[in-house]
Amino acid sequence: MSFSKEEIAQRIAKEIKDGYYVNLGIGIPTLVANYIPKDINIVLQSENGLLGMGPFPFEGEEDADLINAGKQTITTLPGSSIFDSAMSFGMIRAQKVDLTILGAMEVSENGDIANWKIPGKMVKGMGGAMDLVASAKNIIVAMQHVNKAGESKLLPKCTLPLTGVKCIKKIVTELAVMDVLPEGGFKLLERAPGVSVDFIKQSTLGRLLIEGDIPEMKLN
Amino acid sequence: MINKVVSGAEEAIRDIPDGATLMLGGFGLCGIPENCINALVDKQIKDLTCISNNAGVDDFGIGLMLKQRQVKKMISSYVGENAEFERQLLSGELEVDLIPQGTLATRCLAAGYGMPAIFTPAGVGTEVAEGKEIRNFDGKDYLMEYAFDADFALVKAWKGDTAGNLIFRSTSRNFNPVMAMAGKITIAEVEELVEAGELDPDYIHTPGIYVHRIFQGKDYEKRIEQRTVRKVH
């Protein structure tokens, strides 16, 4: 059984350590916030200028001046701080943010990522994605292993315009957890329950490195 | 002291000519200079180059200026929420320069800090790097990006005083302080304008030296783009 989006988020949440400052992208990464273990404290950074992003407000308590980078109404928490956009990207560039989790259209075996532009389609822009991938010390990609057309999104080389080069360290999909090795290649670490190594191999166009028995992903 | 206080948006934008380069503060619709945008729409100033993180929505914010074809070029990081924008872009009527959000903010900062350029890793190895100078520091490549050169910066603050000092509220701060520093002429609209001396100097976000004109705004709509709430359990 391949994982749902929620289960991908749940698996990624296990990578987060106590005290981390974390930036979550839009899509599956946003769901990660729902699965942070109760016994750890982390601080979510929203690149429009907030550290300590809290949950959505209750109805009637929405504040037009308080939004996240997805433009959703949110709340602050005890210990939150507000700053301008230059400082926000300053702390990202200076690697003060411990972990960045974001989605992708394609990742290559040398850690390149493409997630902002499909030639011929309306281009919305890169937002903060290029700044994040260029500077973050630790980036996990949360995405589907194959696209809607059934084609692998883990490639020898990205075909879409790049967002950043040699920057992705780890990928979690509905099928597998993989490290991107510094020398190149996707190293298979875990597989979704019931998903065979062969199936993951068939779904991965880039070089997949398999050593020994590959355990099933555990969510707890 | 020179009087910085003007009667309203109409007076504040009085000398913005066709073809001017403007910075507009805000992130999405949060913290945008609503009054100044409405005045630019009323006056139908044309051929504008707008530096702004986003381009509003069809019927609010910069979208109102796009609808009247007042914008020649947008310099933004993300422009997804506007059908008229898309139409003009695809038909070639509108020029668009998409740049990384941190690069956008830091090019404003550089202008306000009197630095001609910055070095950032954002965009290295991508099409953003095309034609740009690359420098290697400690084994890592950086792009040289120039400070912005804007004729006017239009910003929105929560409180301001007659000396031009500004205080922003919550995440409506976003690009406003760095754009306020970057404009050759900076126009600030505020929700509450008070006399100099009424704001605590320790709590000023933007010192008045950066602000040339200030006025008390009115009729703020403060539209929410993605109203999201949680269920009461």
Automatic annotation (TrEMBL), chain A:
PANTHER family: KETOACID-COENZYME A TRANSFERASE (PTHR13707), SUCCINYL-COA:3-KETOACID COENZYME A TRANSFERASE SUBUNIT B-RELATED (PTHR13707:SF57). PROSITE patterns: COA_TRANSF_2. One of its GO terms (molecular function) is transferase activity. Pfam families: CoA_trans. The keyword Coiled coil does not apply. Keywords: Transferase. The keyword Transferase applies. It comes from the Bacteria. Belongs to the 3-oxoacid CoA-transferase subunit B family. This is CoA transferase subunit B. It comes from Pedobacter rhodius. SUPFAM superfamilies: NagB/RpiA/CoA transferase-like (SSF100950).
Automatic annotation (TrEMBL), chain B:
SMART domains: CoA_trans (SM00882). The keyword Transferase applies. It comes from the Bacteria. Transmembrane segments: none annotated. Keywords: Transferase. It holds the Pfam family CoA_trans. GO terms for molecular function: transferase activity. The keyword Transferase applies. Belongs to the 3-oxoacid CoA-transferase subunit A family. This is CoA transferase subunit A.
